[in-house]
Amino acid sequence: MSQAINLADYKDVWVFLEREGNHLSNDSLELLASGRKVADKVEENLVGVILGWELDGIPQEAVEFGADKVIVVEDHTLATFPSLAIIDTISTLILARKPYAMIFLATEFGREIAPRLASRVGTGLATDNVDFVVEDYFNPKLNQSFHNIMIQVRPDFGSRVAKIYTPRHRPQLATLKPGSFEPLRRDTGRKGEIERVPLPHPGKEYPARVREFVELPKPKVDLEHAQVVIGLGMGVLKGKDGLPKNPVEAYRLAKRLKDLIEKKWGLKTEIGASRALVMADVKSLEGVISRENELGQTGVQINPELYIALGVSGSAPHRAGIRAKKILAVNPDPGAGIFLVAQYSVVGDLYEFLPRMIATLEALPDGD
Amino acid sequence: MLVITLVKGVPGRTAKVLRKDNVLQRQEMEMVLNPNDFKALEASDFLRRRAGGKIVALTMGPDTRLKPVLTPLFNEGATGVDEIFILSDPRCAGSDTAATSYTVSLAVTRAVERHTGPFDELITLLKVRADTASVVSKAKELWDANLLPNKVYSDLPSGSESIVKRLAAGAITSDVAAQLLAKEKEAILKYVVIAGIRTSDGETGSVGPQVAEAIGQRTGREFPHATYVEDLDVDIANMRIYADRRIGKHLQYLEIDCPCLLTMAPEYRARRANAIDPLHAADNNYKGKLPEPLKWTADDVHADPARLGFPGSTVIVGPAILIGKPATQKLVEQSTVFLRRVEKLDWEGKEFGPFEKGELADSLPQSLKDELAKRGSIARFSLEMLAEELFA
Q1: Torsion (CA) A235, A319, B66, B268 in degrees, nearest 10
Q2: Which of B13, B252, B334 would best serve as a mutation to test chain A binding (most A beta carbons within 10 A)?
Q3: How confident is the model at residue A235, as a pLDDT?
Q4: Which residues in chain A have Cβ-Cβ distances shorter than 8 Å to B333?
Q5: Where are the domains of chain B?
Q6: Given an 8 Å threshold on Cβ–Cβ distance, is A360 in contact with B384?
Q7: Same domain flag for A120 and A237
Q8: Number of structural domains chain A divides into
Q9: What pTM value is reported for the model?
Q10: First CA to last CA across chain A, in angstroms?
Q11: Does A119 touch chain B if contact means CB atoms closer than 8 Å?
């Protein structure tokens, strides 16, 4: 596995692009921005890699959003995302062309193919990164210095980040958490090379086959792309006096807050819930709080401008899934873990606080 | 069907310990089963009830810590797991996903060989024309050790139909028996490995697909995998898995040849687990369970020491950097904050400031705070101020 390779042979920065309908996905635009940052730092080309069928103008879009070159593998057998064929194709390309790094999105599909691809080509994978930095790196254990390493920054146990290095292997493989980079400004005049490559093993049979590929109905909540997220926790089940409350009341208040923020400031707002509340399967919340509302490490990981945590205790796995610019936490327990990460803390009862908060916001002049 | 379930012990979610200096006190934390692994166990239980066979749980980590966490799995769900192996070796400490996957893939192979080996033993006896009595006694010994399914040997009333009992009764010849055993051995090799979607401590979700890749590389045959499986069923006649998985806004219906590896999405809920063919399922079952988890070392799974732990790892994790605590923490309607910018000032012989608008004033001496309040420079952090800071 760690047979000596000549690190200097490995040049370009590759990103694995995903489509959404007839365009690149928004997440892929962020991916291009992250790859651009690394490529500029190591002074190499940024290469978009896209596999699929009927890609039309998508490769050119990648150029306009920052790629110097796009490698396109277009084949009707790729239309249904057969992962073994895709892994086979990319690993063949990697072994032949030796990229310095390759970045995937930390989406379901990125998680499906990137780990296996890393093992296939004998390198490492750092998952769920929020940033990439290029630096020289010295490892005391190996007593060795490495020049221009792509340092992969990922959240670690909630309130920390860890730097991950793959210094001895190439390419350095990573996945990028959506929401971590701003897409580059589109430049329709930007020129780049689009290279079409055939499947390396056309007609090859793989031991897993896609029988059907169907589009899912749109989910009711889109926590991942919300600018403001309101999170409900187990605290909705009881009031200040410790007596049970009807959590529907808390949900209605949260909904009023959501509607107000959307109307007044035009910020896309969604309501989520802690794992504890989702798993509690509260009868009266049936239909409004379900698995797709779950926030935190095991649910949806979010990067909003503002996270409002209502009655959320803030366990480590919950905090690990939240990367908000600002956090407002409301909880009667001053020792609740959520206060460790909140800029704004309300030690008190959400049933008392929310109506006053809503009234205060209503009284404010409208935003632009 | 042989089902191998990969599980992991992870630090429990004890808020108490986590609060200490904001630093994780791993050694003080209780270990629990990784929450996502319950979905893997649910899926394993479903497959075993559907097709009969055995569930072998595999884990890696310090055996003394893991034993109490894993022992309850013998009773988890309807029937529990049948065997538990803990791969425990200090040389595995510090493994990244590549080193972990390598070691776990060897343990999977070891678990499979543990169940194919007995077939080879019997086939060898038949090939060398050993007398029937010694074949029967060997089969009984292996069946008692839960290493042969009921269809090969069984002392149960239905066991007269088992291969070895039919041989003993003279209903089939040694050659036929050897052929039947070889066929059943092939069925064991169509096993399924099942894991949770990811662990709550490492959080990579990489080990599943990488175990599949490691087995594939070692055997020279592509070993398929599917992650995020939300629904599954098994086709016993063709030894295939049908799995649904989500990719972004699409659902994929997959047909996967066994042996294969699946990781289960948190959304997975087992279908009603009626056996496809109850008699067939019972034939595939084994006599009983192991009484307790057993330990394997890296040598037991024939691991190359150079590929374990740090030396076998590709990825290096640097020191964690605290980012968690925000620079300022304002308590709504309790903290005192500056209402405007205040230039540097001397107060009782000490220099303070300058202060920006919105900055906390809580830590200033009381007499200074009184003075600043009198001047209208500071005030209680009100709801209006909060609203302005959040949305302005």
Answers
A1: 80
A2: B252
A3: 93
A4: 346
A5: 2-131+176-307, 336-391
A6: yes
A7: no
A8: 2
A9: 0.81
A10: 57
A11: yes
Does a structural domain hold residue A109?
A: yes
- CA of B307, closest CA in chain A: separation in Å? 8
**Is the Cβ pair B213, A161 closer than 8 Å?**
no
Same domain, A236 and A313: yes
A120 and A258 part of one domain: no
A31 and chain B: CB distance < 8 Å anywhere? no
**How far off is chain B from A325, nearest CA to CA, in Å?**
10
Instruction: For residue A17, give the nearest of A97, A89, A110 by alpha carbon.
Output: A110
A361 and B391 in contact by Cβ < 8 A?
A: yes
pLDDT for B327 equals: 56
Q: Using one digit for the tens of pLDDT, what is the confidence trace for B262-295?
A: 999 988 888 776 666 776 788 999 999 999 999 9
Of A114, A164, A360, the CB nearest to B383: A360
* Domain identity same for A259 and A355: yes
* A342 contacts chain B (CB < 8 A): yes
Asked if A368 has any chain B CB less than 8 Å from its own CB, the reply is no
In terms of DSSP bridges, do strands A46-52 and A13-16 run parallel, antiparallel, or are they unpaired? parallel
CATH no. of B2-131+176-307: 3.40.50.620
Q: Which residues pair with B336 in a beta bridge?
A: B380
Smallest CA-to-CA distance from B191 within B107, B109, B290 is with B109
Instruction: Quick: pLDDT tens for A122-177.
Output: 999 999 898 999 999 998 888 999 999 999 998 765 556 788 899 999 999 999 98
User: Are A228 and A165 in the same domain?
Assistant: no
The CATH class of B336-391 is alpha beta
On whether any CB of chain B is under 8 Å from the CB of A28, the answer is no
- Looking at the domain assignment, is residue A174 inside a domain? yes
List CB contacts of B364: < 8 A, sequence separation 6 or more: B352, B372
| Region of poorest pLDDT, from A249-263, A289-303, B116-130 | A289-303
CATH number reported for the structural domain that contains residue A345 in this entry: 3.40.50.1220
Which residue from B229, B250, B205 is spatially nearest to B101, judged by alpha carbons? B205
Q: Is residue A25 part of a domain?
A: yes
Question: Is A349 an interface residue toward B (CB < 8 Å)?
Answer: no
Q: Are residues A11 and A51 in the same domain?
A: yes
A11 with A46, same domain: the answer is: yes
- Measure in Å the smallest separation between the Cα of B256 and chain A Cα atoms: 4
Domain range spanning residue A355? 223-363
| Contacts A–B by Cβ distance under 8 A | 253
Of A196, A212, A241, the position where a domain reaches its end is: A196
- Dist CA B251 CA B257 (whole Å): 19
User: Is A296's Cβ below 8 Å from some Cβ in B?
Assistant: no
With respect to residue A179, please indicate whether it lies within any of the assigned structural domains. Answer: yes
Note whether B59 and B71 are within 8 A (CB).
Answer: no
Contact B247 A112 (CB under 8 A): yes
Closest CA to B166 of B177, B155, B179: B177
